[in-house]
Sequence to fold (615 residues):
Amino acid sequence: AMLPEQGIPPRVAAVRTGAEATEVREPGGLNRRVADAILDGLRRLPRPLLVLDDLDRAGPTTSDILARVAADPHVGCVAAGREHASLASTLASDVELVLGGLDADALTALARSSCVGVEVSAQAGSWLHRHTGGHPLYALEVLASLGSDRPWECDDADVELRLSPSLVSLVQARLNSVPRAARPLLDAAAVCGEPVDLGLVGRVVDVAELQSLVDAGIIVRSDEGAVRFAHALLAKVADELVPEGRRLELHHAMGSLAADPAVRAHHLGAAAHLDPDAAITALATAGRAAVDELAHADAAIWFHRAADVAGAHGHTAGDELELRLDACDNDRLAGQPGHAEPLLAVAERALVDGRDDLRRRATLAAVQLGEVVDAGPLQQRASVIAERALALEQRGPWRARLLATASILHSISGEPDRCRTMFCEALATLDADDDGTACAVLPYAYMSLGHPDDLPHREAAMRRLAAASARRDDPVASWEANHLACSVAIARGDGPALRRAFTACVRLLERTGDAGRRWSTGYLEAAICAIDRRFDRAEQLAGEIITSGSGVAPARAVAAASGQLLGLRWAQGRLDELADAIEQLVADQPEIPAWKAAGSLVVASRRPDLARAWL
Fold:
């Protein structure tokens, strides 16, 4: 097509009409004649440059002809392709450039040049590299689709990637170029998720075509053998290309074969429409496995998904409610902000619709250490739930458990007598031989028996709890016994006992480490630092426990940290620095007597009238 436009006779016709038959039939003869004809035309052009794309997709005849043409010194040649071996076998090149994606620094520079007027941090390059593999066109398309969003500034690594139709079309074209025989493996790898478990995928589809996906640059293998998509963009679009019915089948097949509880739950949960019973079983099993690992946030996610499936597929309200209770209680144990409202809602439902065992579990979960112990509407709602539940438990160990647990609701709400009365009633009904109930009841002596006059009773509760927890090999109760022991040691001025008990609390976190106990261990460490007159470290820890306790009980976390800061400033002779803050706390939370008690000490020197009023 080119030659006539340049006024050059189409000599290629000689291949068909003027060639001797014997010459054409020689091995390579036809290819040589075609190459000679093309070269004859190219040599009539000044400094011709032959540009070839996708050369690795050329067949053997075309490759042979092109190799002959490119070997001529008069002809310059630039060729591109994805398979280096195919290029090398076709062209004897003077210069080879292996083009990888842009690195993170280059992608950051690209983002800054394309996002004019917007500050772009260095994290942008790493984020773009993870999602595009450094492909500059993909990176520009992704940046354009983000608008004003800057997902690389988020802590969440799983920020949803929005893709423009043009970018999806580009990636689809790349994926659609894979050999037909490799398509089942590509679909299964996309559904499997990252990293691709080749052992599991290989039990569902044939993995013989893996190398073709590697050669196409879609799949990469690390030196350790891990298999992944080259970047997140390919993985996302590949997953979206899988037909919905095929996706469900692949998820169900992989979930049925997987041994790991989390992997099994992921796949069977995604195939819940095919087999809801298997999905619920797998999701709940994964939740229980996460609880065993103290991964309460993960457990909550699994149980919530199980409850969603149960509710959507006609399971009984009791089944759904039990799974939802497990989910909400693990949100509480994880210190998830906002956990109280759904947990209280579950308890209220259980009081009306639940079985006795479900009602008891739900009520106890709803009134434990968490957001409900902070004074306010949630605490009042939890108190009503506790009273309704106590009306149904007139005697026995469950009444003792509920009385002790609910006592914490009144510990900083302006009703200290109510807190102590409930605990003492629980203590009075506690069977001397019932270690299980003792382990559930006695930890609440920490707040209920906090008055100095109750120190002997508090110490007796600590000793009984330590003995019961040892007999039951109960790490949670053992942590609570040592937590009580710390407070007793501080009250008695027993430094060695305090350090022994604190060391035990730290050690037991490996078996009991929910958010509440980690927060409590943090404020014990701050107290020891203050005793050691390491005031800077104590103050740093006091600040940290506000953060760690914010998802447990925000107001109580502030109270603990503020109480420690009060002690530090007193020891440092700097109480006046707290005057403005304490006055604000009293104004914001007048129902908390502790603020007024602390405030009277702080303001006594400059405002004795206010100190007297607060006392």
